[in-house]
């Protein structure tokens, strides 16, 4: 029992709906512009109404999305340690656990190279710099609510090549193509947990309190990830930046979960959840 490949259509549909809402809703458009441009280097302007989810400091972004792979890992571990497909002693148990671990390791590697480190700056940071982006020194504007950049760069901000280092130094990441890391990670998280959970349950898991609470926890992580994907689609990034984040995620999901259904040698390495 596996989700059909067409189930992945939920992600482009989510991004299209969110992006259209951000363009067509006057309230969303104003809040989105303020979230993107009005807060760089300074606090939110009190007089400007901003949706809570348009703020980068909202609690869900800080404690869920920013540490999203930790929640993904916990949910994956719950599936692996609590569902019968991986717990019940059988001739298939060790093979299933080994292949599940390989799938998780491969997804983690792609996440790490894309968003954290790739022999230096992560792939997202490298693409931003290659397309003309750089770290700029942000200074308060005359009105106190906006910001301008210091082209003289006396503090060496232009030499910072990662978004994290730029932010830590008090600069702003501007000018390049900023592939949406949020879209990439949230799509990868929800699809990964969906394939793993449905596959494990389809392997004949019996109804139990352990199974019920395990599935509930994984479902909450997946549902909140989808919700934050929708919020990202509404409030942040351009259409093209969101599309590229989606493309990287779907390419990863296809390689790990769809391709093994057709390519036997690859299936022998990463397996199929529940089989």
Automatic annotation (TrEMBL):
GO MF term (any one): coenzyme A diphosphatase activity
GO term, biological process aspect, one: phospholipid biosynthetic process
Active site: 182, 237
Membrane topology: Multi-pass membrane protein
First-level EC class: hydrolase
Residues passing through the membrane, by range: 6-24, 60-83, 104-124, 183-203, 215-237, 243-259
Protein family (similarity comment): Belongs to the FIT family. Fungal FIT2B/SCS3 subfamily.
Protein name as catalogued: Acyl-coenzyme A diphosphatase SCS3
Upper classification of the organism: Eukaryota, Fungi, Dikarya, Ascomycota, Pezizomycotina
């Amino acid at each position: 029992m596996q989700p059909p490949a067409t189930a992945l259509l939920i992600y482009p549909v989510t991004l299209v709906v969110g992006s259209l809402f951000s363009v067509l809703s006057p309230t969303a458009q104003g809040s989105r512009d303020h979230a993107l441009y009005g807060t760089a280097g300074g606090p939110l302007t009190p007089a400007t109404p901003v949706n809570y989810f348009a703020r980068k400091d909202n609690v869900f972004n800080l404690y869920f999305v920013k540490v999203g792979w930790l929640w993904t890992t916990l949910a994956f571990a719950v599936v692996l340690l609590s569902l019968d497909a991986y717990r019940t002693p059988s001739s298939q148990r060790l093979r299933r656990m080994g292949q599940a671990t390989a799938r998780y390791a491969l997804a983690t590697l792609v996440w790490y190279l894309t968003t954290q480190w790739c022999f230096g700056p992560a792939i997202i940071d490298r693409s931003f710099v290659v397309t003309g982006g750089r770290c700029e020194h942000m200074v308060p504007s005359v009105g106190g609510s906006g910001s301008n950049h210091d082209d003289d760069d006396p503090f060496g901000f232009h030499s910072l090549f990662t978004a994290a280092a730029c932010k830590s130094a008090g600069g702003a990441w501007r000018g390049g193509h900023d592939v949406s890391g949020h879209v990439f990670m949230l799509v990868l998280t929800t699809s990964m947990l969906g394939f793993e959970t449905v596959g494990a349950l389809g392997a004949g898991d019996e109804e139990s309190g352990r199974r019920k609470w395990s599935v509930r926890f994984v479902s909450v992580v997946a549902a909140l990830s989808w919700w934050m994907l929708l919020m990202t689609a509404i409030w942040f990034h351009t259409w093209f930046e969101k599309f590229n984040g989606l493309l990287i995620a779907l390419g990863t999901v296809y390689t790990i979960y769809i391709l093994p259904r057709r390519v036997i040698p690859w299936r022998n390495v990463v397996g199929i959840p529940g089989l």
